[in-house]
Amino acid sequence: MIRPVILLLVVLLTGCSAQPSGNRAAQSEKSWTPPAAGTLVAADSMKVVEDSLNNAYFSVQLRVSEGNSGRHSEAFRYDLHATWGKAVKDFQIIMPFHGERLKPLLRRGEGYRFYMGFIPGPEYGGDTSFHEYYRVDGHREYIHVRPMKGFNIEE
């Protein structure tokens, strides 16, 4: 009796989460509109293997900064919050000028490293490659945030 109920439950749950492929294609072609200030837009974390005693993680979060409204000609800003166990680093990421519609993304690098970057998308010539913009490195005593490249976006 339990087996048919579990099977039915699995079928229902997988069917509800499925999205028609036509909708996915349409969503990927839409440009990104930044959400309200304070909204979490990207996050990732990894376990610090060397610190199993404290169950430590290296994590990075990106949130939309306050005061971005009306900045169409200026650089759009995101607040980066990184932690390595108890070490904390707060930093403000400034996107390229005229890049308010660039969606920020996080990608893992080698070791304890994350890359914050973006994929330009349809509004910026249709480029679909990931562009590294900042690098976040973690170590026992420090968290470093470094710019990787500069970008010039012309309108």
Report a brief summary of the structure:
This protein is of the alpha+beta class.
As a whole number of angstroms, the C-alpha radius of gyration is 19 Å
Average pLDDT rating: 78
The outline comes out as elongated
Using DSSP, what is the number of strands? 8
Largest sheet: 4 strands, antiparallel
User: Which spans of ≥5 residues are poorly predicted at pLDDT below 50?
Assistant: 3-28
Q: Tell me the helix content.
A: 10-25%
Termini, distance in Å? 64 Å
What would you note in describing this structure?
This protein is of the alpha+beta class. A four-stranded antiparallel sheet has the order 1-2-3-4, with no helix packed on it. It has two helices and eight strands, in the order ααββββββββ. 14% of the residues are buried. The chain is 16% helix and 39% strand.
Which labels suit this protein?
four-stranded antiparallel beta sheet, disordered N terminus, 155 residues, 39% strand
Write the layout of secondary structure elements.
Elements: H1 2-17, H2 21-29, E1 40-47, E2 57-64, E3 75-84, E4 87-97, E5 104-108, E6 113-118, E7 131-138, E8 143-147
Antiparallel strand pairs: 1-2, 2-3, 3-4, 5-6, 6-7, 7-8
